[in-house]
Amino acid sequence: MTIRYTKIAMILALAAFAFLTVFNNVTDYSSNFNFVQHVLSMDTTFPDNAARYRTIDEPWMWHGAYWLIILGEAMTTVLLAYGALKLWRARRADGLAFNQAKGCAVVGLTVGFFVWFFGFMVVGGEWFLMWQSETWNGQDAAFRFYMALLGVLIFLNQPDTSDRQP
Predict the structure, then answer these.
(1) Transmembrane residues, as ranges (predicted)?
(2) Closest among 54, 41, 35, 2 to 136, alpha carbons compared
(3) Do the domain assignments include residue 166?
(4) Which of 37, 159, 164 has its CA nearest to residue 101?
(5) Is residue 65 part of a domain?
(6) pTM, two decimal places
(7) Rounded-to-integer distance, Cα 70 and Cα 63, Å
(8) Position 116 in a domain
(9) Which domain holds residue 115?
């Protein structure tokens, strides 16, 4: 049972993290919005880079991108919290039932991975060249987040073969 409780606790911890991220983005909208605005504007990247044609200077698009991030984080929160609940309810079931209860948590971890890896590393980091900015570079933080999600996803997907875990 220890392994099952550990998996549930890790999913809950990541749900709490995703929730606090959403909470902070909504309650401190302008601080985090400024991050999105500067990344999309590419105003702190190298001034002579040839990719500045990718710049987005429309405030409605900055807000739209920011709300898309918040939506992805909120989806991660809900899916992980519900996934933890499903795992909790199946904690005493046989291995097959516990494995089947992992689905929602797996989807939540995957959504979170896409938010922080695809959103921040691929789109922000490479398309908008966030890596060039000393001030508005969230790649290190995003790396920590998506690696935690990925590590828990791998651990969660280790099969539970019996109803009695060591």
Answers:
(1) 65-85, 106-129, 141-157
(2) 35
(3) no
(4) 159
(5) yes
(6) 0.91
(7) 10
(8) yes
(9) 2-156
